[in-house]
Write a structure and sequence with these properties.
Layout lengths: L2 H4 L6 H34 L6 E9 L3 E6 L5 E5 L8 E4 L4 E4 L5 E3 L3 E9 L3 E7 L2
Antiparallel strand pairs: 1-2, 1-7, 2-3, 4-5, 5-6, 7-8
């Protein structure tokens, strides 16, 4: 029998809250551990694709980067704004986009892009090849 089954009396509200809190803490630790293992597995998996090209979609635009999810597999990587060498790009938060000052090229949410897997270190990094 476990401890709950061995108890004869009814739990107080405070005891139930303490048990629920402990269960939530343990579940959050397990969830975070699972995410971390999945993330490390994806990084190890992608090492064999260094230098390969893929198509993907921009799923987030940040001041310093674009996040791209690949079409062919559930992998997300980063295109650093500093790696976009064809123009000087500014971040426009209200439009969630990067816009080139010289040529006006725009990168925004849901844009399709072609990328090259360029680096795997603390994260998965892509180099932008083109915007179809």
């Amino acid at each position: 029998k476990n401890k709950i089954q061995q108890r004869k009396k009814i739990f107080t509200l405070q005891e139930l809250q303490a048990h629920a809190l402990q269960a939530t803490v343990c579940e959050n630790i397990a969830d975070e551990s699972e995410r971390e293992v999945e993330y490390k597995n994806k990084m190890n998996f992608m090492k064999k694709y260094l230098g390969d090209e893929f198509t993907g979609i921009i799923i987030a635009v940040r001041n310093s980067s674009l996040l791209v999810e690949l079409d062919s597999m559930p992998v997300t990587g980063i295109i650093e704004r500093s790696s976009l060498q064809d123009d000087y790009y500014e971040f426009y938060e209200q439009h969630r986009s990067l816009i080139g000052k010289r040529y006006g090229r725009i990168y925004k949410l849901a844009d399709k892009v072609r990328v090259l897997v360029s680096k795997i270190s603390d994260d998965i990094y892509f180099h932008l090849i083109e915007k179809p």
